[in-house]
Amino acid sequence: MKQWGTVIYIFFLIGVIFWLMMRQCGCINPIGKPNSKTRDLDKYSYQNLRKTKFNGSQIKLGKILSEGTGYVSRMFYFQVSGKKVSGLINLPTNSGKFPVIVMIRGYVDLEIFQTGIGTQHGGEVLAQNGFITLAPDFLGYGESDMPFGSSLEERFLTYSTVLTLITSVKNLNPILEKNNYLKIKADPEKIGIWGHSNGGQIALSVLEISGKNYPTVLWAPVSKPFPYSILYYTDEFDDNGRALRKVVSDFENNYESEKYSLSNYLSWIKAPIQLHQGSADEAVPQRWSDSFVKGLEKEKINIEYFTYPGDDHNFSNGSWGAVMERTVGFYRTNFNK
């Protein structure tokens, strides 16, 4: 019996040693949470996205949507993670080699969405002033494929979508030539970003993840920490955000939300920024931008900040022209045009 007791004790010790080794390597989570090495959303943390290589996609042009003085607007398509993403491209009609501005819209209800909504008018003005613009619809919108994974994964994929599109700019000139735009060239060395509302949040995330010098204009950007940046808007949903709060709660039970929040990585930004904010904006309160600008200034980031008394989220109370003029001027200065 003593021999059996000794054998059992030895196996017990071996089991304890094995458990400790597995715990130390991260293969066992002592509090019952999923293994951090296999969790689906780990790859979307800012630190992991920063290590990710985003390969360019081929770009295809689709039908012409509109033509005006100095510009033409068309559908375009590219691939992200094996899925098709549609979008709107605005091209100048005069000849030359032009900088490229990636335009990122804010939130739009899927039921009313059309390609170009939120970026079309501004893109036309930029094209008239000598810039090529690319505005992705994102997965699930326009003619894009449906997204995969959870609603939070769909959100995090917007960063990968924009980073993939930026990398794809190098493939634009052969497609322009193939479509008989023989006098129009994109300059892949001169890429800027424009973002409005939630698109501003995506733009800032892209600046942090890439660490690149992409001159960026932000119109009333959502700049608060995640997940408050989305929970703030729960009253706009039919269920008052109950489903969204459940998604966020489950996420925070398994992940460190700080690793998914742009407010923690401002020091990674290396690009000049111009920010516009209306004082009567009900979607993005001015106090958000005031505080955010102070954070950027603390990090010694090159930031121009303009406020517009009495104007709203879309600068539709009289300031849109001035905002657009300053936007064009910012890109011209930074691209030496």
Written description of the protein model:
With 337 residues, the chain is an alpha/beta fold. Helix content is 36%, strand content 21%. The protein has 2 domains: 1-32; 38-334, 3-Layer(aba) Sandwich (Rossmann fold). The chain has 10 helices and 9 strands. Strands 1-2-3-5-4-6-7-8-9 form a 9-stranded mixed sheet, with helices on both faces. The longest helix has 23 residues, at 2-24. Mean pLDDT is 90; it is low at 4-38.
> Helix/strand/pairing class, anyone?
alpha/beta
Q: Provide the domain count.
A: 2
CATH class of the largest domain equals Alpha Beta
Helix content: 25-40%
Quick one: CATH superfamily of the largest domain? Answer: Alpha/Beta hydrolase fold, catalytic domain
Q: Strand order across the biggest sheet?
A: 1-2-3-5-4-6-7-8-9
Give the termini separation. Answer: 90 Å
Tell me, rounded to a whole number, the average pLDDT.
90
SSE string, helices as H and strands as E: HHEEEEHEHHEHEHHEHEH
CATH architecture of the largest domain: 3-Layer(aba) Sandwich
Give the tally of β-strands.
Answer: 9
Q: Given the structure, what is the number of helices?
A: 10
CATH topology term of the largest domain:
Rossmann fold
Silhouette:
globular
User: What is the strand content?
Assistant: 15-25%
Core attributes:
single chain; 337 residues; alpha/beta; Rossmann fold; nine-stranded mixed sheet
Q: Short summary of the structure?
A:
This protein is an alpha/beta fold and 337 residues long.
Question: What's the layout of helices and strands?
Answer:
Elements: H1 2-24, H2 46-51, E1 60-68, E2 71-80, E3 83-92, E4 96-104, H3 120-128, E5 132-136, H4 151-168, H5 172-178, E6 184-196, H6 198-210, E7 216-219, H7 228-231, H8 242-254, E8 273-278, H9 286-298, E9 303-308, H10 320-334
Parallel strand pairs: 4-5, 4-6, 6-7, 7-8, 8-9
Antiparallel strand pairs: 1-2, 2-3, 3-5
